[in-house]
Amino acid sequence: MDSKLLIEKAKEAQKLSYSPYSHFAVGAAIALKDGKVILGANIENASYGLSMCAERNALYATYLQGYKKEDICALALYATSDKLVTPCGACRQVLQELFPLDAPIYIETSNGDSLNTTIKELLPYAFDEENL
Ligand code: THU
């Protein structure tokens, strides 16, 4: 799927965000090889630490629908911000295990900033199952 179209899906996903504490709504969309797109948004909680990011929600939803790393083409991320928003450290750790290392990650923010990257680039020297 075209990167612009996938970013549009991430914008759609942003509308599903439940973020009454941070007021920082994030949307994510994962494109699959079979043409499906799985959405994710951040879902917060009054017990702040229980909040879950858009990227991890999208990735977990993907696996819960029976898909695996090999079925994934790309991830798009969209947030409303004056500065480019990249995945947090926890999401990078989860992505490097469950998302293809070289698959494109398209990021865009409302100020027009954008970045096309990969999890390999975002998390070099990662701790993974081979370290165990
Ligand atoms: N957040 C995401 O969902 N993804 C990111 O890449 C950055 C941060 C969420 C977590 C929290 O609900 C809010 O944004 C503020 O940190």
Task: Tell me what the structure shows.
Strands 2-1-3-4-5 form a five-stranded mixed beta sheet. The protein is 28% helix and 22% strand. It is α+β, with helices and mostly antiparallel strands and 132 residues long. The radius of gyration is 14 Å and the shape is globular. The chain is built from four helices and five strands. The longest helix has 12 residues. It starts with a helix and ends in a 10-residue tail after the last helix. It has one domain: Cytidine Deaminase, domain 2, CATH 3.40.140.10. The model has no long low-confidence stretch (mean pLDDT 98). The site of tetrahydrodeoxyuridine has 14 residues, from α2.
Order of helices and strands: HEEHEHEEH
- The proportion of residues forming helix, as a percent range, comes to 25-40%
CATH architecture descriptor:
3-Layer(aba) Sandwich
Strand order of the largest sheet: 2-1-3-4-5
Compute the average pLDDT: 98
Overall body shape: globular
Ligand identities: tetrahydrodeoxyuridine
User: Roughly how many Å apart are the termini?
Assistant: 36 Å
Please indicate the percent range of residues in DSSP E strands (runs of 2 or more): 15-25%
Secondary-structure-derived class: alpha+beta
Gyration radius (Cα, Å) is 14 Å
How many domains comprise the coordinates? 1
The helix tally amounts to 4
**Superfamily (CATH H level) name:** Cytidine Deaminase, domain 2
**Strand element count:** 5
Poorly predicted runs of 5 or more residues = none
Largest sheet composition: 5 strands, mixed
CATH-assigned fold name = Cytidine Deaminase, domain 2
Question: Which CATH C-level class is it?
Answer: Alpha Beta
